[in-house]
Amino acid sequence: MARIGIIGSEGRMGQALARAIEQAGHQCVGGVDRGEDVAKLADGSDALVDFSAPAALKDNLHAAIGAGIPILIGTTGLETTHHEAIDNTARAIPVLQTGNTSLGVNMLAALVRQAASKLGPDWDIEIVEMHHRMKVDAPSGTALLLGEAAAEGRGIDLAANSERGRDGHTGERVEGAIGFAALRGGTVAGDHSVILAGEQERITLSHSAEDRMIFARGAVKGAEWLIGKEAGRYLMFDVLGV
Ligand SMILES: NC(=O)C1=CN([C@@H]2O[C@H](COP(=O)(O)OP(=O)(O)OC[C@H]3O[C@@H](n4cnc5c(N)ncnc54)[C@H](OP(=O)(O)O)[C@@H]3O)[C@@H](O)[C@H]2O)C=CC1
Ligand SMILES: O=C(O)C1=N[C@H](C(=O)O)C[C@H](O)C1
Question: The Dihydrodipicolinate reductase N-terminal domain covers which part of the protein (predicted)?
């Protein structure tokens, strides 16, 4: 049985995670939200799981280092400076950061990587996602994870080849680009499609999240897996073996 502390405990994911921790036979030792002391939570935990906001990240990493425990970061909307902080932290403790903790999405990413590696740049790649009306970041962390998988398969750098938020006179599509489109509405837990559009044919690889418990269960698996690991930066691919 592991003692797991939740960052963002009153949020949609925090509440789902508390249920998943109990269902897996672990102990939810408590949680923090905005303005609360994460260092104290870390001291009583075997692992921290963070589903909060990018602004909280540096304090959360600091608390995990202070307590010498692993941390799983599910928060999305991270920028370059956040990733640099994660890389630095991963020299001291095990850190798993992912845009999506579900088995299905990580399997989808593996399929996208394979498809992109076999099909040439004449197959245009577009990533479409839809989420509930409360989501604050776009593209979703999952869309970026899928974009990274496609870019890796194709052997290109995602940042240098992304096309986001087309509007107005955009000009023709750039060959080899990876496009992103984000839809928001209702209560959608998370839908993602990767479209590979070739000459007169099209492949669509999709995942639909029916309930955010899928993310919560994946996060518990990730936290279990991280406990006792060497310092380093890990992915859900390492946990799920896909
Ligand atoms: N990786 C994955 O598989 C998944 C990732 N996510 C991501 O997880 C994050 C949370 O999503 P969701 O639960 O829907 O969002 P919510 O807005 O429902 O919950 C976020 C929680 O974090 C709290 N919070 C905000 N700022 C801080 C802070 N500085 N320190 C501590 N807590 C803070 C909020 O408190 P307050 O209300 O006071 O601001 C709130 O309780 C998002 O980034 C989302 O994209 C979501 C699902 C799956
Ligand atoms: O905010 C959400 O709800 C979700 N966020 C993650 C993302 O940004 O991809 C994962 C999931 O799609 C739900």
Answer: 3-100
